[in-house]
Amino acid sequence: MYLRELHLLSERVGRPSAYPFNIPAIRGLDKLSFRSNVTFFTGENGSGKSTLLEAIAYQSGFHTGGGGRNNAYELASSESHLGEAIRLSWLPKTSQGFFLRAESFYSFASHVDEIAREDPDVYRAYGGRSLHERSHGESFLALFENRFNRPGLYLLDEPEAALSPARQLIFLRHIHELQRKSQLIVATHSPILLGYPHAEIYHFHESGIKPIRYEDTETYQITRRFLENRAFYLNELLEEEPEF
Ligand SMILES: Nc1ncnc2c1ncn2[C@@H]1O[C@H](COP(=O)(O)OP(=O)(O)OP(=O)(O)O)[C@@H](O)[C@H]1O
Fold this sequence. Notes:
By secondary structure, the protein is α/β, with parallel strands linked by helices. It has a domain at about 5-100 and about 150-165 and about 185-210: Rossmann fold. About 35% of the residues lie in helices and about 20% in strands. The chain is built from eight helices and nine strands. It has helices at about 25, 50-60, 80-85, 105-120, 135-145, 165-180, 220-230, 230-240, and strands at about 5-10, 30-35, 40-45, 85-90, 95-100, 155, 185, 200-205, 210. The strands form two sheets. A six-stranded mixed sheet has the order 5-6-7-3-8-9. A three-stranded antiparallel sheet has the order 2-1-4. A hairpin with a 2-residue loop joins strand 8 (about 200-205) and strand 9 (about 210). Helix 7 (about 220-230) packs across helix 8 (about 230-240). The longest helix is centred in the middle third of the chain and has 14 residues, at about 105-120. About 40% of the residues are buried. Bound molecules: adenosine-5'-triphosphate. The site of adenosine-5'-triphosphate (ATP) has 12 residues, from helix 2. Adenosine-5'-triphosphate binds near residues 23, 47 and 187.
């Protein structure tokens, strides 16, 4: 493990009515402890998971558009107001790792192509050819298999977005290997990824950011209920008059 704790510095908090301090889960944040090599952030859309992950990336010295410390490419490295307002406690400190944002993966792949024009050897780290020449899921796994092997801190924002359920299971195996020498913090909606057994799950909620058991997450409960009784669910959802 590397990152042990995150503190919100109250003296650096900006306007409470403006982003990002107006997000309920962030407003209720004092400190967050990392006790496991794998930590998941889960919670409703818009609950603040990406915002906090980006703030951690910013404070860790990673490119906030995605990538590692040395990926100073053209995608706007957004300023992070929350990043300026948190302090990270490390033991030991690492500057190695990667920040993976699903929405900036395309730009990252183009960046790799650009460097490879000068030095084709660069492709070796990504499975031997351009990430653009593979499907979204294939290129994502190529990145993971070839580049995510050094000890460090890996911040992943919805990595399941590109992956079929079968590939998510393969991805679990990669997480398991990587966590032996690294730390991962993963924002996810995937009931498969959340099921990784050695992880701590934090739930982002109106009342703050709290640990939660896998079986108590909405992701698990809704998926389970839907699969167990699809007809009932669909009937409720599609047949009943909407309440306005
Ligand atoms: N740059 C921004 N400026 C203003 N508001 C923003 C900005 N980025 C995000 N928000 C808002 O902040 C809230 C939290 O967004 P965030 O992306 O952190 O949520 P999330 O939990 O990662 O959601 P999802 O599960 O949909 O990815 C949302 O209400 C969003 O609309």
